[in-house]
Amino acid sequence: MAIKITQLHHADIFGYIADFLEAAKLLGSLEKGEQLAFELVDFAQQAARDAANLPWDE
């Protein structure tokens, strides 16, 4: 069962996004890691978009 980004607390979401971007940075430094790095950045962008639609009054 997958967890949707909207099921997480916003502080956790930002932490995960930071982790995804750090992993993408490390993968981008590898010769064959560029494609996965781009996919992680795309995923992080979508997570940020989804998080922006969450109510912030929790």
TrEMBL record:
This is Uncharacterized protein.
